Amino acid sequence: MAEAQNSPTSGYAPAGGPPPVGSTTAGSIAVAAESTVATRMSAPPSFDVADFAVPHGREEEWRFTPLERLRGLHDGTATATGGGVKVVVEAPEGVTVESVARDDARIGRAGIPVDRVAAQAYSAFEQASVVTVPKETVLTEPIRIAVRGEGGTAYGHQVIELGAFAEALVVLDHTGDAVLAANVDFVLGDGAKLTVVSVQDWDDKAVHVAQHNALVGRDASFKSVVVTFGGDVVRLHPRVTYAGPGGEAELFGLYLTDAGQHQEHRLLVDHNVPHCKSNVVYKGALQGDGAHAVWIGDVLIEARAEGTDTYEMNRNLVLTDGARVDSVPNLEIETGEIVGAGHASATGRFDDEQLFYLMARGIPEKDARRLVVRGFFAELVQQIGLPDIEERLIAKIEEELEAAVA
Amino acid sequence: MATLEIRDLHVTVEAENATKEILKGVDLTVKQGETHAIMGPNGSGKSTLAYALAGHPKYTVSGGTVTLDGEDVLEMSVDERARAGLFLAMQYPVEVPGVSVSNFLRTSATAVRGEAPKLRTWVKEVKEAMERLNMDPAFAERNVNEGFSGGEKKRHEILQLELLKPRVAILDETDSGLDVDALRIVSEGVNRVRESGEVGTLLITHYTRILRYIKPDHVHVFAGGRIVESGGPELADKLENEGYEAYVKGGPVAGGHSKEDVA
C-alpha cells in the first residue's frame, strides 16, 4: 500500500506568521520512471577527478555552496601540504587499524564520488586508513578517530568495515584548522550494527568537504549522527545504499550555524533493495549575519525496492535576522508497493514576540533564547539514544549558546 | 501595599514612516486588592496601555511616569518588570515551539520567585492549579501555546497568573474569544487570585460580559488614548445599555470589526 505524505511546511512555522526572511523551503515528491536524483547531478559518479568539470556554481549540486571559500578544493588548486592535518585512530582490542595504499581492494566499495571535490579527494589521497571490526565482534568501547587540523591542507580516505553481526560505535572528531576533502566508507556486513558520530567542531577558518558512503548489509543497522558546530565552510554528503533486504538506516543531524558560517548537509538514501527502512532527522539553529545552512534530503525508492519504509525531516530555527536557510527535501518513488514514505521540512524563527512573551514572565533574555534552542534540540538528542554522546552534545550546545548569546 | 501609579502617560508607535501618538495622557492608580475595569471601543488604545506597561519594544513612552511602589517601571526591562510583580495576561499569547509548558512554568516561577521552587511541592502546586482550571494534565507536556485553542491559551495565561502571584495583574481582553463555560472557568481563576487580596487587577475589556463574573471596584471609560470617565460598577451598566457612542467623536463605533494591532 503506497502512502505518501507531503507536508513541507507542517507544524513548526508559527501559525499565521510568514516564514523568516531569507529562507526557502521547497519539497517535492516525484513519481518517475527514471531517477532525477541521479540526472540532476552534472556528471555521473566517478573515482576520477578528470570526469568532473570545475564547477562554476550554477550546477544543481553546487548552487548553494560558496565556491570562492572552498580554498581551491573544487578546482584543483588546493595542494596537500603533507602534514598539518593529523589523524589519530584509537581502537579497542580486537579491531584492526591499517594504513593502506590506494590499490587496496577495500577502498571505494561503499560508494563512488558523486561530485568534483569528492573525486578530487579520491584522486589525491596517498594513504587510506582501514579500520576493521571482525565478524561477530561486539565492541563495548568506541573507536575514536581524531582528525586534528594544524593549518594544513589534506585529502583523506577512511574505511570502516564491520564483519557480519559485529557491533561498533565510531566517533569521528574534527577539530582545529584545516582545509580537508575526504571520503569515508562504511561497509556493514550482514546483521552488523554501526553507529557513527561525526563531530565537526572546527575552528572558524576551517573548510571541510566530505562524502560519507554507507553500504548497509542484509538485516544490518546503520546509524549516522552528524554534529556540525564550527568551520568557515562545512559541506557533508552522507549517502546510504543497501546490500541486502532488511537493512535499516537512521541519519540524524544537528547543526548550530553562526554568523558567516556555511554549513551544508546533503543526504541521499537510495532504497535499491526491498524491505529496507530509513529515517532522517536533521535539525539546525542559526544565528548572526551571513549564517547559511543548507539541507538537501534526497530519498530514492527504486522500482525493485518494495516494502520500503522511509521518512525524512528537516527543521530549522532562525534565531536572528541575517541568517539564511535553504531546505530541500526530495522524495522519488518508483514503486507503489511500499510501507510508507514521507518528508517534512520547516523553518521557523525565534522572533521578538516569543522573546517578549518569555521575558514578560520574568525570564531574562539570555535564558529565554537558550530555553528555546535547548528545547528545539532536546527531542533529537534523545532520539540519538547514546547517553554519553547526549551529555556531550548538550554540554556543547550550552557552550556554543553561552558564547554566542552572551 | 503595592501601588501602580500611571501619571500623564504618553505612548507612540511607529507606523508607516510616521510616529503616531496612541496614549495621550493616561492617569490611573491601581492599589493592591483593587480591581479596575478599563472599557473602551476598538482602537481607543486599551491594549497599547497594557503592552506599554509590560514594556513591549514596539511602543515608545514619550512622556509621563509609571511607578510600582515608587520604583520607576519605565526604566526596567521587560523581565525586570515581571520580576518586580507586573503580570500581563495577553490577548494573543505567543507560540514558543520546543518549550514545554511545564519547563516554561518552572523557568518563569524560578525567575519571578528568585529561586527554583522545590520540585515536590511545585509539581503538586501546578497539578492543583491546572485541575482548578479544568486543564488536562497532558497539557503540561505540550509546547507553549502551540496548537492551543483560544480557550486553552487563555486558561494557560490564568494558570501563570495563579502560579506567579503578581502584585499587579493586567488582563488584556482575557474574555475575547471565550465561550460562556470557558469565560466562567477563567473568571473563577482570576477571582481566586483577587481573593488573596494581594493583587491589584487591571481588567481591560471591550465587553461588559466578563464583569458579571469579575466584579470591578472601579470602571474607567477609555477613548481617544486616555481615560475619559471614571466611576463605580454602575458605569459598566450604563455602557451595557448605551454603548460607547457618547465617547466617540464622529459617530457610532462598529463593534468587533477591527482590532487593535498589538502584535
In short:
The complex is a heterodimer of chains A (about 400) and B (about 260). By secondary structure, chain A is mainly β.
Key descriptive features of the protein:
heterodimer, A: 406 residues, mainly beta, 19-stranded mixed beta sheet, 15% helix, globular, B: 263 residues, alpha/beta, four-stranded antiparallel beta sheet, 7 helices, 12 strands, 32% helix, disordered C terminus, Fe-S cluster assembly ATPase SufC (chain B), nucleotide-binding (chain B), AAA+_ATPase (chain B), FeS-cluster_ATPase_SufC (chain B)
Q: What's the helix and strand layout?
A:
The complex is a heterodimer of chains A (406) and B (263).
Chain A (H helix, E strand, L loop, with lengths): L3 E4 L15 E3 L2 E3 L5 H4 L45 E6 L5 E5 L15 H9 L3 E6 L9 E20 L4 E22 L4 E10 L4 E10 L4 E8 L4 E10 L5 E10 L4 E10 L5 E10 L5 E10 L7 E10 L5 E10 L6 E10 L2 H8 L5 H20 L2 H19 L1
Parallel strand pairs in A: 1-19, 2-18, 3-18, 6-7, 7-8, 8-9, 8-10, 9-11, 10-12, 11-13, 12-14, 13-15, 14-16, 15-17, 16-18, 17-19
Antiparallel strand pairs in A: 4-7, 5-6
Chain B lengths: L2 E13 L2 E14 L3 E5 L6 H9 L4 E10 L2 E2 L5 H7 L1 E4 L6 E5 H13 L5 H14 L10 E2 L5 H15 L3 E5 L7 H16 L4 E6 L12 E6 L2 E6 L2 H9 L21
Parallel strand pairs in B: 3-10, 3-11, 6-9, 9-10
Antiparallel strand pairs in B: 1-2, 1-4, 4-5, 7-8, 11-12
Describe, in plain words, how this protein is organized in 3D.
The complex is a heterodimer of chains A (406) and B (263). Chain A is 15% helix and 44% strand. Chain A contains five helices and 19 strands. The longest helix of chain A has 20 residues. In chain B, the strands form three sheets. In chain B, strands 6-9-10-3-11-12 form a six-stranded mixed beta sheet, sandwiched between helices. A four-stranded antiparallel beta sheet of chain B has the order 2-1-4-5. A two-stranded antiparallel sheet of chain B has the order 7-8. In chain B, a hairpin with a 2-residue loop joins strand 1 and strand 2.
